[in-house]
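Section 3.1 - Work completed
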Amino acid sequence: MNIAILSRGSHLYSTQSLLKAGEKRNHAMEVLDPTYCRLSIQNGNPTLFYHDEKVDDLHAVIPRVGASNTYYGSSLVRHFEAMDVFSIVSAQAILNSRDKWTSFQILSKAGVAVPHTVLINPYLSAQQVAIFGESPLIIKLLEGTHGQGVILAKNSKEAHPIIETLVAAKQKFVLQEYIKESKGADLRVIVIDGVVVAAMKRQCKAGDFRSNLHRGGTSESIQLNYEEEALAIKAAKALKMGVCGVDILQSERGPLVLEVNSTPGLEGIEKTTQKNISKSIIGYIERNKR
């Protein structure tokens, strides 16, 4: 098959890992930088040019769409879908996962356990903060990523000026309970085609509460218990994702889904678990685009 990876960084670990996995399975692999894709509709048909070359021979695409490029990236994926090109994650799933509140609404409807979360209403922010009492709370921008746009406030008094600043800046954000017992750790679970293929536990560095590896966190390969595995699979299904990374917090009332990532990084989890996740992604394409 002809498979394209939609990525602005051909040198990145995840892109290279996917390229090698596809080539080992004798697929024709290439990298398309979304920056140079031109979309149009001609004579009622979707057409796409990469630089000046028409793209009309692809069987599947693997989106690696960055958060800063969500709108155009998801439009590109939707264009490929209109051209009957298989994508490992749909345009709508990308959009749903990138908006934290939308994803929580979808997960809640499906009965997926998540932390207590409140969408901020600029006119009722004081009352909304009061819901958390004097407990620590997390303030999250709706479209933040890699731990950016996430702030820990020790109490409501500390949260108020932060919220006032974000409201004045017309930012969209949520308030979320702080799961103290997780001790700055979470589980990153990769789900492909409804099956957990890899899982690791990430631990934040001293002095931080965010467990992202590129922020200095550490990781170890783990075996999920039944409840954690079932929750990850249920979250992936709720957001209609064939491939995703599910972040889970271990709380006193059971596992809680913190986030579902439509384009999870592969370097940390492949090196930690020694699992060839890229190979599993290529296998998913082979099973679904015959």
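Second construct:
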Amino acid sequence: MTTVLITGCSSGYGLATAQRFLDEGWDVVATMRTPRPDVLPASDRLTLLALDVTDPASIANAIESAGPVDVLVNNAGIGGIGAFESMSMSTARELFDTNTFGVMATTQAVVPQMRARGSGVIVNVTSSATLAAMPLAAVYTASKSAIEGFSGSLALELGFFGVRVKLVEPGYGPSTAFTSNGAERMVEIPSEYLPFAAPILDSFATPGEVTTPGDVADVVFRAATDTSDRLRFPAGPDAVALAQSG
């Protein structure tokens, strides 16, 4: 039986991804900061674990409890929007702690067992913000772009040992909890920026094509089971369009 460990499964992309792997017959270790048994149907192939990707002890405990992991999906992430000029460095560090260093730390915790087995897949979920410049998201984009570079290098490094690394790049998903969580880090926009920012914020509220949790779950599963050297997998119609235009 194949086992996948997914971070950030309390809602949104992570929850949909956990359900997709369950539907495919996998053993699923669904992690979240505070496990909620109500979010997924009971199954003898489902294990819920507490995991805070910013806490080294939490990571170590979760990986030990999970046992052998064939696929790691680094999905946990937080949003943050606003003018960079008014963003505090504490908020910037918060974004990097989860979106960048949390991914790196969780990955580092599973690499030894995958390397020793000579197999495994690491799927890092980033954002379509890495595919084209997005205003009012400079630090968020930087935190996700760092993982793009990290993953490309790691794919070469671990490929020698038979371990694959993949990137899934979701488009804009206004219906996800991730988007609402980002509102907690919506920094105040200085009045000087309002003529520039107002139409952008309006467009966030009335987007065109968007990405659904199901879109991302489908692409994560495809990336996890892909045996080619392909690294990047855009997810959602808007992300696919950006990738093709680039």
